């Protein structure tokens, strides 16, 4: 695994190149030109309703845990990939004491816990800190960013991999299909740019206000689309009708979409981490609840769906644990010690 590799993925063309000076200048110029209006943007930030305290994007759980023939091999140090929202934390972003204690026990047992989330690096690192993870790896932005945790590095981490793509075609198709949607874009350097006063806690940083034309000129690690005007069903239909090509994407619990470079997922990043650590594929565990976890659960030898996961997520899992409301992640972590 090469330190700070930026892969620019424009669909079928896989080019491993550092971000161009022109792209860096565009990002810096946009951040600078937006600085004067950032305060007004801050004051008018809109938090999507489903992320406000007291509201839940997760359906009520209706499944009982389903086990498998998996058995713990004594002395083996497993790679354990853990989704965050809906797995480690509830819809208010709160990690229960039981989940935290179980994670700490798994770390003490020597297992490689890897946070694997759709959140950006800025929102992923606090979860690592909460668990006391000072070394190891984390996957952010649905596989677009891979971090190595290192207490000796600046900011206590370094970026090992950043996979970018040209968002222009996807933006145009999505804008046509969802004319009232809001858009946000994450760049390889960790900045966020957004339209329509769109802000979300998964960004981990204040988004800089801009317009969709400027977004289309940037290289993206992740493109986020949210609509407050569409039902989840209508939103999903519009995404399908948009006919996105050359990118990977996952629809969330609500009218929410994450877009990444073609071929990029949590699983693609985790496979690189597995090889770096030298962990046998048979010694991999993953726990998640969302559609962006499907590839990860299929990749792991022991893929575990949370109890509130939708049917298509459960279908690829080897096991089903309790819901996030009943500390389902803790149940799996405890099985490792």
Automatic annotation (TrEMBL):
<dbReference type="GO" id="GO:0000287">
    <property type="term" value="F:magnesium ion binding"/>
</dbReference>
<protein>
    <submittedName>
        <fullName>HAD family phosphatase</fullName>
    </submittedName>
</protein>
<dbReference type="GO" id="GO:0005829">
    <property type="term" value="C:cytosol"/>
</dbReference>
<feature type="region of interest" description="Disordered">
    <location>
        <begin position="1"/>
        <end position="69"/>
    </location>
</feature>
<dbReference type="InterPro" id="IPR023214">
    <property type="entry name" value="HAD_sf"/>
</dbReference>
<feature type="compositionally biased region" description="Polar residues">
    <location>
        <begin position="18"/>
        <end position="37"/>
    </location>
</feature>
<dbReference type="InterPro" id="IPR006379">
    <property type="entry name" value="HAD-SF_hydro_IIB"/>
</dbReference>
<dbReference type="Pfam" id="PF08282">
    <property type="entry name" value="Hydrolase_3"/>
</dbReference>
<feature type="compositionally biased region" description="Polar residues">
    <location>
        <begin position="1"/>
        <end position="10"/>
    </location>
</feature>
<dbReference type="GO" id="GO:0016791">
    <property type="term" value="F:phosphatase activity"/>
</dbReference>
<dbReference type="InterPro" id="IPR036412">
    <property type="entry name" value="HAD-like_sf"/>
</dbReference>
